[in-house]
Amino acid sequence: MSSLADFGRRQSAKLLTLTRPQAVLLMVGFLLCLGVSTAALTGHPALAAALLAAVLGVVLVGMLHLSRWVGSLHRGNQSALREVRTTLEHLQRRLVAATESERISAGERHAELTTIVTKGHRQAQHGTDLLLRAQSREIEAMFQLFGEFVPRAPMPSSGDFALNPTDLLELLHLIALKQPRLVLELGSGTSTVWIGYALEKFGGRLISLDHDHGYVKKTRALLTAHSLAATAEVRAAPLAAMPIGDVSYQWYDPAAVADLQEVEMLLVDGPPQATGPDARFPAMHVLERRLAANATVIVDDANRPDEREAVRRWTQTITGLTQDKSILGRHAVLLYTRAERNIAAISL
Question: I want to staple 188 with a disulfide (CB 3.0 to 4.6 A). Which of 1, 57, 76, 210 is the partner?
Fold first, then answer.
């Protein structure tokens, strides 16, 4: 009984979902069936047959309507399927294009990365080769230095802020060739001890200036330890304002060299770059008149822009100052010859 009730409720629910034409057609069919039954029961066979024919017509019309609805639904489904197929094909093309683009991009990135890695490897290999060659040169220079001089105490380390062994070897070679009687060094340290040993051989004298009292004390202790105090002297020379034209520089107090004349070799290795821009430019402006008629000027760190510019300005503005192009290393060697008219002008 309950199943029959459930069936009735389901059918009632379906009736509520009928459209207006479907409801009208169902009502007409119901009325015709009722008429057929009534006519048959009341003894009117002709009317019953006519109404039965009408019922069949209604059924045919319903079937035709259902067929058209099914056809319309089929066509809608086909159109939807075509749209879905078109959408899928479009998505597939986009996916293939994106995949191909990513593949090409990945290939290009891989090639670029391979190029970068290869270039980096070559540069690293080249840098390693340069470092090994430089290290070999420094070791060879160090052997030559200690073969030429026998220190009387442990030598301070070279490199870093101090001159490298190759630069020291070249500097000491120049000293041996020129045999200057007076050398003025701007900035003290390891090179002061080595120069002291070189000058000791032929009776030369070294004056070294330094603005840093710690370096002054340390270098003096080194000279004492190596028994070079009679050959080399370190003077404390605090930095002071040095106006040249419209520019003021920080340079050594000129009072520290007031007693010096006939300096045959000048080593420009200070003040440090950290004291200010163009820190070493004032050297020739202050010391030209204290140089001997024939002197050698050595500029350390000549590979740096400030020092290169200082050398350029000096050689362009100071008569008799030329650069020796045959010297290698990181320092520049300048040859100074004072003209007779310059001597007369200085004496005035």
Answer: 210
Query: Per residue, what are the HEC states of the chain?
Result: CHHHHHHHHHHHHHHHCCCHHHHHHHHHHHHHHHHHHHHHHCCCHHHHHHHHHHHHHHHHHHHHHHHHHHHHHHHHHHHHHHHHHHHHHHHHHHHHHHHHHHHHHHHHHHHHHHHHHHHHHHHHHHHHHHHHHHHHHHHHHHHHHHHHCCCCCCCCCCCCCCCCHHHHHHHHHHHHHHCCCEEEEECCCHHHHHHHHHHHCCCCEEEEEECCHHHHHHHHHHHHHCCCCCCEEEEECCEEEEEECCEEEEEECHHHHCCCCCEEEEEECCCCHHHCCCCCCHHHHHHHHHEEEEEEEEECCCCCHHHHHHHHHHHHHCCCEEEECCCCCCCEEEEEECCHHHHHHHHC
> pLDDT tens across 26-59, in order?
677 667 677 767 766 777 677 667 766 776 777 7
The pLDDT score that the predictor gives to residue 343 is 46
Residue 77 in this model has a pLDDT that exceeds 70: yes
Q: Where are the domains of the chain?
A: 1-148, 164-347
